[in-house]
Amino acid sequence: MQKIVVYDTTLRDGAQQEGISFSLADKLKLVRRLDRFGVDFIEGGWPGSNPKDAEFFAAARGIDLDHAVLTAFGSTCRANVAAEYDTNLRMLLEAETPA
Question: Do the domain assignments include residue 99?
Answer without folding.
Answer: no
